Amino acid sequence: MKKLLMVLLAVVLSFSSIAIYSGVEVKADYYDAGDEFFLEFILSDIGEEDIDFSHTPLYNADLQVNGREYTFTANGQSGYALMVEYRGENQTFYEIEELFFNGVSPFASCEGLPIYITHNTYLEYKNQAFYNLVNGLEVSEELIADYIYNGFNYFGGTTATFTNTTINIEYATKSTEQYSIQYDLPNLDGSVEGGCCAHTAGAIILTYYDRFCENIIPDYDPFFRMGPIVMYDTASPETIYLTQDLVDLMVIGEPHEGVTFNEFQLGMETYVEQQGYTYTTTNLFSGGSFNLNNYKNAVQSGKPVGLFLTNYTMSNGIREEDGYDVVGSGFCPISHVAAGCGYKIDTYYDANGNVITTRTYLKVASGLISYGIGYLSLNDTTTISKAISILVS
Asked: What mean pLDDT, rounded, does the chain reach?
């Protein structure tokens, strides 16, 4: 298994223009630590293929280089990736924020400097001003400040507000496929001082694994049994201390709001290794997109899934009426991290047995007081930027 997190020293490696990486022929003008991370990431997605790639710089709001736009060809498919660079005290961290096959980079039309400072936002700097590449409009200083504040962090938590909607789905028959990790996951919510949804999601997953690795939370059993059924405790001093430990460990550079994907990985790996165990993650994307079958395989194997969302929709429930379902949902436009533990797929048919629509939901420990263990809707506006299965052993 390849870990998506890779910590690299900021040392440039010199290679010829054609390098062999883990048995894969790689064609590039030069090859350095950032390229190595890009290759590690893309090969965890597509496997071993011949890759031809190049990159150009991306910039932050101070017009300083903060990442790269990669264009590549792999197995006859062209695509692009957007990578951001973070500098710690002694190390450089890289993070792929987007990876798409058979797609054109949002910066393809950029005439000035390409500015990439937050999720799903593509800017250019020209004529001493910032412009949105999607609509061509000039971006205000106030909005730029908001983008800088958000960065590529995941916030979620108590700041989440939802816009609620309902739809009716008429049908003749319906079938449901569903699965959940046995006894679900611990239902922890909220956060400690300085914490956010990523810390809560990490604590949920580690508390789950304490059933099997009893020293994850020393001198504490996070569950009790009612006959053959396992019931998890709600928040306790021990899980609060665990969450606070993750707050302290999930940070690169100066303290800031939210947590990046790399910070989540760094904090989780550090905590688990301190307790004497091994932390392993597997990328569940393929071809640059969330792969539902990979997700199913993970939860069916008892592995929780870290879901990193740049926006998301939660199910508000389904009410069955005579001949139709009333489907409610709540949309949140801010980023979030949830822990996946199952799924539910509803397929609706007409009287002739033809499929009308299919609705897919991921069962999650949301970390939200209002939803608890609920369902993330993939049928509405939900953007999954990263999904990793997590194993502690």
From this structure: 86
CATH 2.30.30, domain 157-392, yes or no: no
Q: Tokens 């290679």 appear where? A: 15
Q: What is the pTM of this model?
A: 0.87
Q: What is the mean pLDDT of residues 12-20?
A: 31
Does an H or E element contain 209, and which? helix 197-209
The DSSP secondary structure of 333-376, one letter per residue, reads -S-EEEEEEEEEEEEEE-TTS-EEEEEEEEEEE---TTTSEEEE
pLDDT tens for 72-99 read 887 777 889 999 998 766 778 899 998 8
In tens, the pLDDT along 300-359 reads 999 999 999 999 999 999 999 999 999 999 999 999 999 999 999 999 999 999 999 999
Using alpha carbons, select from 171, 188, 162 the residue that is nearest to residue 325.
Answer: 171
70-77: long-range contacts, CB 8 A cutoff, minimum separation 24:
70/38, 71/105, 72/42, 74/42, 74/46, 74/49, 74/50, 74/101, 75/46, 75/49, 75/50, 77/101, 77/102
How is the chain split into domains, by residue range? 7-150, 157-392
- Cβ neighbors of 362 (< 8 A, separation 6 or more) are 295, 307, 340, 342, 343, 375, 376, 378
Please give the pLDDT value at position 32: 84
